[in-house]
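Field notebook, page 612. I keep forgetting to write these up properly, so this time I am using the form the group agreed on. The chain and the ligand, 5-amino-5-deoxy-1-O-phosphono-D-mannitol, are recorded exactly as supplied. Prediction of the bound pose follows.
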Amino acid sequence: MCGIVGYIGNKKATPILINGLLSLEYRGYDSAGIAVLENNKIVVMKDKGRVNNLNNIDGINNLNGTIGIAHTRWATHGKPSKENSHPHLDNSNSFAVVHNGIIENYNELRNFLTEKGYTFISQTDTEVIPNLIHYYYKNGIKDENVFLRAVKSAVDDLKGSYAIEVISPLFPNRVIVVRKDSPLVIGKGENENYIASDIPAILSHTKNFYLLDDNEYAEIYTDHINFYDSSLVSHSKAVKNIEWDASAAEKDGFEDYMLKEIFEQPNSIRETIGSRLKLNELCSFDDLDLSKEYLQSINKIYIVACGTAMHAGLAGKNAIEKLCRIPVTVDIASEFRYRDPIIDDKTLCIYISQSGETADTIAALKLAKTKGAKTLAVSNVIGSSITREANYTIYTHAGPEIAVASTKAYTSQVVLLVILAIYFAEILNSTPANLLNDLKADILDLPVKIETILDQLEPIKDFAKKVYTQKDMFFLGRGTDYNVALEGSLKLKEISYIHSEAYSAGELKHGPIALIENGITVVSILTDPSLVEKSISNIQEVITRGAKTLVITNQNLTNKHFDFVINIPNTNPLISPILSVVPLQLLAYYISKNKGLDVDKPRNLAKSVTVE
Ligand code: M6R
């Protein structure tokens, strides 16, 4: 999805902008560009394709300007092309704009501006913005604040979501930014300031950030920043220290971010557990103050999320229902918001989002708020949009996740949801303390158990080599193993482009078994002792029909005629997804590598899906 970078200071802006864009590549994009103020003019250099292509544009290395804005575009309106790339200029080349998000009423605004004599070069929704700014500037009183007022008037006309940066040679000492429903942060330096849609883009320059709020404006100068609300009333804003390590956002010697993030899981889980869970002590959340009275009043919980985060929600449902006996429904955010869900003040809605910027999840959260439910966000990104909308937030603390395919965020989300379930159960007194304590011991053992799985890569690599040319694959499981099958199948699809389906093993004979033919690969997850025998029978059914089988199990299975078996450590079924997903992540990774694909940036996908 689109990324934004900006700089104002005393250094050459161009390398800072390009490096910032490079560290945002993981968001997914199809074109890139920069605009720099140079000798009282705006110089725009942009093209479709990779950020690195910018370095080949004639003259880019000679730009000396110290104020600039930059963008990676992921096409929504208009195909990927140089014309449609950002930054966009107004007709008089007085204002350059980059924009993340979607302007829903751009057609109407385009017609309005066309009537006023403006013309358009691109098919984008964004190009209306610099022209609207010019229109209001031209018609405004020419005092020191005319630039800010013109931006505000233009923004007042916009419907949709946006994070916007604007520069102008008429006001060569500032960058103006504003956001609504799309992230934007300002990094504070010494006599210089940075702007980005995502913290990792500028983390190597500063750890001090201002997290811009919805409808908030900032006028950024080299040595100070003015903040304004939506009526342009100025206010002060606290700087936030973000202790992410810049090197944590780099590859650390791993071939790809995805592999690095898979290997980070023992540590990211330790961070997620933090001081929230200790043996023989009640769980505690610094960031939650839900009373016993409130928890007793809840008659229903919704867990709402997209993709992998939704799969983590399925594990959360199992834990909450088992330990707290409160009914939980897991919903896909893009469905939830349109299906008129039954929500009232006795409903708790939990929203899971690694990025905290997923448009569908945020919209689903806003819906629940309007219906009087309490909302709880589970996110990995401090200060992200979802955390600012929700009544409560608990952070996964998994560290930056760069690869598009989510791995460590998933395992941290599951850990956090299970800890949350224990915390609720302790308040509600709904599960005996000794059982909860056993589960706590199992959670604390997870990091070491994952390390043992990561020590045995060879069988997974071998299997990946054998199956990477397949066109279709199937993933089977029952109960919590079915939830993991869904996640394994999604991981495979998104980074290897192999068609795959996940089925509940018991459902197979109701239709999908018709697809099983000689030589097809079926991956099965068998970890829940109460369901193992039944699942084995289902696997025998596919073996009989010629399937090649890989079984991931914590059970002692002998003489079952499986082609490959990967053994994983035993644990409580409520948290077994955290272990069984690791071989599936690695399988998808090595299959993708065998196919020679770009593991971190799969086609058509974006890390942060900020459009509906
Ligand atoms: O940032 P979010 O957790 O809200 O993202 C949700 C999904 O877009 C995300 O999990 C997606 O499915 C991943 N690419 C899966 O690997």
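OBSERVATIONS:
- The radius of gyration is 26 Å.
- The chain has 17 helices and 25 strands.
FOLLOW-UP: compare against the apo run.
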